[in-house]
Amino acid sequence: MPAQGRAPLPALWRWPRALWRLARAALHFFHGMAVLAWRFPSLDEAGRQQRIAWFGGKMLRLLGLQVECHGRARPGATLLIANHISWLDIAAIHAACPQARFVSKADIRHWPLVGWLANGVGTLFIVRERKRDAVRVVHEMGAALQRGETVAIFPEGTTGAGRQVLPFHANLLQAAISTETPVQPVLLRYSQPGRPVSPAAEYIDEMTLLESIWRVISADGLRVDVRFLSAQGSRHADRRALSQALHDELEHELQRDMARASTGVVGQPLP
To answer: At 102, is the secondary structure helix, strand, or coil?
Structure first.
């Protein structure tokens, strides 16, 4: 029997439902581009954040995901660090923390449409293969943090399967240390009924983006939990020691969260 008494949808209905989700998500994507092109210039910061939260949350729902938030992002200058599982991660964090500016690999800047959208919401791009570029990005992150902004990074540097947190790269944490900015860990976990960690959300190994999108829109009961942990001070911190401490905290919380998953404890659904 399926978990929680939920019967699987007949295979006959999976294709039409998946295509319906894809069509609606595509329309929403182009709507978001129109908002960015014509509305963003006239909006204040609060208005922009409202639109970013709307775009991320609605996109996930149209793709078939339920979004649940536990805790809140720290207001003011903060460096968010999160585990990385999927191309869905940025939308999930933006739905709960629309003020976050992400650091993403430079390749995304050249993706059709997506790159333009990412650039429009203030994404900082890094060429990971060049060590000098990390120095440039650290300076840009530091300037943003000094202005009181929230910056978000994925210190694993790649996506994982979601059952453990991969080793962290510590370089970008220097931006928080240099500006004495608090660092707040964010735990992401994708699940389905009966599965504390959903394989449908994985974007790993040789999987293509199209294959990953199809797995997501074909899934039943897919859910993403966004859990904000307590912020930590970074003043006079050793970069590697801070990185390891943050990694261990996220790993510990992930294992606890997976263990809690069968108890029925839920977070706060986003509007």
So the answer is: strand
How many helices (DSSP H) and strands (DSSP E) are in the chain?
8, 8
pTM for this structure?
A: 0.89
Neighbours of 10 (CB within 10 A): 7
DSSP class per residue in 209-268: HHHHHHHHHT-SS-EEEEEE---B--TT--HHHHHHHHHHHHHHHHHHHHHHGGGT---E
Reported as a single tens digit per residue, the pLDDT across 164-206 is: 999 999 999 999 999 999 999 999 999 999 999 999 999 998 8
Q: Name residues whose C-beta falls within 8 Å of residue 152's C-beta, 6 or more positions apart in sequence.
A: 79, 80, 81, 82, 93, 97, 100, 101, 102, 103, 186
Q: Tell me: the pLDDT tens digits for 200-231?
A: 999 998 889 899 999 999 999 999 999 999 99
Return all residues near 256 (Cβ < 8 A) that are at least 6 apart. none
Structure tokens belonging to residue 243: 């990185």
Q: Could you give the C-alpha distances from 80 to 94, 125, 183, 234, 263, in angstroms and in order?
A: 12, 16, 6, 12, 28
Is 167 exposed, middle or buried (CB count within 10 Å of its CB: 0-12, 13-18, 19+)? exposed
| Interval 32-49 mean pLDDT | 93
- Cβ–Cβ under 8 Å, residues 167 and 156: yes
Residue 125's beta-bridge partner residues? 104
| Contact between residue 224 and residue 88 where contact means Cβ atoms under 8 Å apart | yes
The burial of 59, by beta-carbon neighbours within 10 Å (0-12 exposed, 13-18 middle, 19 or more buried), is given as: buried
Pairing between β-strand 124-126 and β-strand 100-105 as defined by DSSP bridges: parallel
Give residue-wise pLDDT tens across range 52-101: 999 999 999 999 999 999 999 999 999 999 999 999 999 999 999 999 99
